[in-house]
Amino acid sequence: MNPKISAIECLKEGWECFKVRYWQNVGIYILLFVSMMIIPISLEYLFRYFGISIQDNGFSWISNFIIMPIFIGNLIYVTLKIARKKFGSFRLFNFNFKFMIKIVYAFVILYLILMSSFPISIGIVYLALYTQKIPFFVTVIVAIVSASISMYFVLRTQFVYYILADDSEISVINAIKKSFRITRGHILSYLRLFGLLALATWAGIILFIIPGIIAYIVGWIALSRFYLKLIDIDNANQESEQPQKIPVIPL
Fold first, then answer.
1. d(CA 150, CA 135)
2. Coil, strand or helix at 246
3. How does DSSP assign 142-160, residue by residue?
4. 2-6, 11-15, 62-66, 247-251: least confident range
5. What's the sign of the alpha-carbon dihedral 182, 185, 191, 193?
6. CA-CA-CA-CA torsion for 64, 70, 75, 76, nearest 10 degrees?
7. pLDDT tens per residue across span 200-210
8. How crowded is residue 230: how many other Cβ atoms within 10 Å of its Cβ?
9. H helices present in the chain, as ranges
10. Are the beta carbons of 11 and 222 closer than 8 angstroms?
11. Farthest-apart Cα atoms in the chain, separation
């Protein structure tokens, strides 16, 4: 069983979830983004205060590989709560050490896997341009194939952070496997939803900043609704694959 997911339906559900407590939702996202900007600056001044010298690229690495993944993980964590309409009981941030380590670990693994395809492509391009041992059309084909594989991998692992935010017990490797499993057959639906969200966000920004911000928040909630539908489908499939118990009739 693999029913199609409607991008329009996810967008409508995202809007309905946003409307319930829209001022609170806007405030939550503003607080998240302000925190994202303040934390790196605070760390830099803290290091300087204690006389710790770190080059600018060092702060860039800290921001990209530690702060950014934790920020994204918390953004997804909060958005999942909003998508489930659990407004009264959720914590704003999840600073559980185990959760943050998993998010950073997942980011590093996915980044390394994604980047591993580039050295091969760069090597072939170098051989084609400077040694002329490889025809140019081969270089073009390799570049297209490499880009396609990278894009496919990104799409299939799109919900790893959602799974980690949703299930505190799952490992990073199992989260990657589960993301591959739940996205099977739903890539086109995801692309349609992503395209609609991109159009709505940019249209809102062009018209006025506030509609753009609202469209951006609704987009995150709509993606969470999409993820929850994937989980429902996956749970139904897992139950249907379990062997049926045959009742034993006593003689």
1. 23
2. coil
3. HHHHHHHHHHHHHHHTTTH
4. 247-251
5. negative
6. 110
7. 888 877 777 77
8. 23
9. 7-20, 22-49, 56-62, 68-83, 97-115, 117-126, 136-156, 160-166, 172-182, 187-207, 209-241
10. yes
11. 84
